[in-house]
Amino acid sequence: MVQGSAADWAACWLAELRRRLRALRADGTVQAELVFFLHDEVMVHAPEAGVPACIRAIEEAAAAAKELLFGPIPVEFPVSVAVVDSYDNAK
Questions:
Q1: How many alpha carbons fall within 13 Å on the CB side of residue 18?
Q2: What is the reported pTM?
Q3: Which of 11, 56, 57, 62 has the largest CB neighbor count within 10 A?
């Protein structure tokens, strides 16, 4: 049950993140692209000026996925964000 729910959450998180990044590109806020996803990790490529908007999109997408699947529950789904200059430094 837990593993299946986690997979559902990750799929919804990814879909919502894609939607939010597309909206950022459409309104000219930032040209960010989702470049990698595996299990519960995402990698977004964006110019330095767009980092705050991308972080907000990542965190808000995670919260939206939780709300979609589980409703207004008092459980947090923490998301850690690392900002790096090169993909090989991401951890």
A1: 9
A2: 0.88
A3: 57
